[in-house]
Design a protein that fits this description.
Layout: H1 24-32, E1 35-39, E2 45-49, H2 52-60, E3 64-65, H3 103-109, H4 117-139, E4 145-146, H5 147-152, H6 154-164, H7 171-182, H8 188-211, H9 217-222, H10 229-259, H11 262-270, H12 275-286, E5 295-298, E6 302-304, E7 307-309, E8 314-317, H13 319-323, H14 357-374, E9 379-380, E10 402-404
Parallel strand pairs: 2-8
Antiparallel strand pairs: 1-2, 3-5, 4-10, 5-8, 6-7, 9-10
Helix pairs in contact: 4-6, 4-14, 6-10, 7-8, 7-10, 8-10, 10-14, 12-14
Amino acid sequence: MSQTDSLPHGLPIERDAGPFDPPRAITRLREARPVSPMVFPDGHEGWIVTGYDAARQLMADTRFSSRQDIGVLHDPIEIPGMPAATEPSPQVPGVFIAMDPPDHTRLRRKLTGAFTVNRMKQLEERIVDVVERQLDELERLAPPVDLVKEFALPVPSLVICELLGVPYADRENFQVNSAKFLDTELPFDEKIAAYTALTTYLAELVTRKRATPDDDILSDLARHDDLAIDELTGVAFLLLLAGHETTANMLALGTFALLEHPEQLAELRADPDLLPGAVEELMRYLSVVDTLSLYRYATEDIELGGETLGKGSTVVVSLLAANRDPQRFDNPDTLDIHRKARGHLSFGHGVHQCLGQQLARIEMRAGFDGLLRRFPTLKLAVPAGEVKLRTTMRIYGVHELPVTWTETAR
C-alpha cells in the first residue's frame, strides 16, 4: 500500500449527518487530526484544515497565499471537463480575494469607505423597507411558495443592485450566471461561458459609469483614474456575486434551520431582542461559505497545528467544521440562539475578512425579523428530507425552500 492510499481522497461533501451539519468524514478528521493531509482529485497531496485554532491561524498567516498566479492551486472537487492544473493560473484583475498585499490592500482600501459600520447603519432603514416590500409581495401569493425565489434571493439582490448601481431589471442575467459559475457539477466550458457573460455585462456597465457616473459604489470606483476597466469589472463581479449569493443562502438556510428547531423559533418570536445574537449563531451553525470556496497556497514550508505543510501545497479550510469545534464552542452541534457566538469564522479572518459583513448582518436581522413577524404560522410545505440541498455549489444552502402558512399578521 502506498502512502497516499491511507490518506483521505477527495473532499467529502455529502451531508450525511443532516442538512445543517458537516459531513461525518469532515467531523472525524477534525477529531483525529485537525490539520490533515488529503489527496485532491488530480492526485495532488494537499491539506484540509478542520480545527478552529488552525483555521484562524492559517487565515491570519500571509505565507498562505490567496493568489492563483504564483503556484498551482488544485481544486478540492472534480469539475467535469476541467483541464488538470499544471501551472499557475493568470491573476484576474480586480478580484482582490484572490490577491495578497500589497495588490489586495490597494483595491480593498478603495472600498472600505463604502462599507463602514456607520455607512451601513445609515442604510438600515432602506434595507428594512426593501424587506417589508418583498414581504408585501409574498403575502399576495397563494401558498405554498418557494421562499428562495420569492424572498431570500430578491432581498439581497435588490440591496446590492441599489448599492452598486446595477439595474435590478438585469437580475436574471447575474443570478442565473452566478449560479452556473458556482455549480461544481456543471461542465467547465459552461461555467466559463457563464463567467464570460457576466463579466462582459459588467464591463459594459462600469464603462458607462466611468462616462456618466451616478450616486453608487461602482460610479465612485469608476472615478478612480488609476483603476483600469478590467479591474473595475473584476471588483464589480466580486461584489455582485458575494453581495447576493451569501446572504440569500443564509436567509433561506437560516429559515430552514429555525423551522426545524421550533423551540428556538418560538423563543425568537417571543423576544425579538434575541435576534442579533441569533444571527451570529446561525452564521456559526450554518457556515454557508465552506471548503468549496476557501483555499490557500503554501508559499514555503509552514508549521500549522503540529504538522509541516510543504511549500506548494494547496490547503482547503472547512469553516463549518472549525465553527463546530468543541474546543472553541460548547455543545457546538446545537443551535442555541442564546449563545455568544462572536468569534465565529463565517466572515473569515485576517486581511481577507469579509468586507460586507456589516451589510450582511443588517440584511439578515431585517430579513428574519420581518419574516417571523409577518408570517407567524410559517412552516415547511414538504418534509425536511425533500428540501434540495446545494451540496455541489461553492456556497452552501438550499435550491428551493417550499413553505406555507395559514394566515399573516401585520
